[in-house]
Amino acid sequence: MAEWGKGDPRWIVEERPDATNPNNWHWKEKNATQWSKDKLNELLIGLKVEDEQFICEVKELKKCDGEASANNRKAKLVFLYEWHIEGKWEGSVRTGENRTKFEGGFEVPNLSDENEIHEVNITFSVEKSKGDKLKEMMKQKGEPIIREKLGEYVRKLKEEFSQGLILPTKNSSTTTNTKTVSTSSSINTNTATSSKSSSTSQSSSATGTSTSFETRELHVEDTFKCPRSELFQAFTDINMVRAFTQNSVSQYDCQQGGKFSLFGDNITGSFLEIIPCDRIDMMWRFKSWPREHYSHVSLIFQDDTEQTKLIVQQTGVPTQFYDNTMEGWKRFYFESIKSIFGYGARLF
């Protein structure tokens, strides 16, 4: 028998609001099946895909079979999901006398935790042979939009639905405006995502002390005179990254879970999700930020009339570093990319 006060801490019931699941040790599962069905319907139904000639809209999900759950074990979250989706879309010619409506479908047979979003299969069909042009438009323009929405579902499952799975301990703050970020040697730790201005409490496991700092959301965008695929490549091809960072790349493993280190190791992080030509999600930090604190960065690539718009959405930026971070994106990313690759010049 262990001496008093020296037992295995995993079995010591903490002073916590519910006095259950000490240290978040036991397996806890939260069924996300119905929530997922509602969320997929919300994200996909009403989705419009259009160009200068055609317009299409997703009308319904005829099939949404599968299941999903969020699980907590040893204070780590595990997400399991598997879906087979079939939807119906309608389309027509935008102009002219022929406003015949065409009906078609799309199928997503393998949306699951075993596949990356870019590995998910999306196929399209049309009921009338004369609607082949609309089918082709749905394949070219609709597929990346639907894929982006599927990725949004996965993100919301992990960020929204999982709230409350890791229960507070006696050392956790109970105020609604405060989120706790526990330090760890791993980049893929839980990082508090703040609102536009919120208070974040960060604990230091090395010193046992706690420091508080406010974080903000950052949103910045710019346009580049190049196709979307080329701008996306500037962030994913290591040779292009070396070029616009002036060869200041220590590490750049551009794949899910891969790590990066740029600008003399001042910028470090890891890739969370990469959707070709559409989106890159990262855990991202600056060297002078509070120890082990990472922000969440989303790079969103959009077509914009003979150019490409890049949107940077960043949450969890320490308030005291907000202006420097904003300036860094503009100077060391946007301006450098335009200067090195000529993307600030017009295409014609």
What's the arrangement of secondary structure elements?
Layout: E1 28-31, H1 33-44, E2 48-50, E3 54-73, E4 76-93, E5 102-112, E6 123-126, H2 132-161, E7 178-182, E8 198-203, E9 210-224, H3 228-236, H4 238-244, E10 249-252, E11 259-262, E12 267-275, E13 279-286, E14 295-303, E15 308-318, H5 322-341
Parallel strand pairs: 7-8
Antiparallel strand pairs: 1-3, 2-3, 3-4, 4-5, 5-6, 8-9, 9-15, 10-11, 11-12, 12-13, 13-14, 14-15
Would you summarize the structure shown here?
The protein has helices at 33-44, 132-161, 228-236, 238-244, 322-341, and strands at 28-31, 48-50, 54-73, 76-93, 102-112, 123-126, 178-182, 198-203, 210-224, 249-252, 259-262, 267-275, 279-286, 295-303, 308-318. The chain is of the alpha+beta class and 348 residues long. A hairpin with a 2-residue loop joins β3 and β4 (76-93).
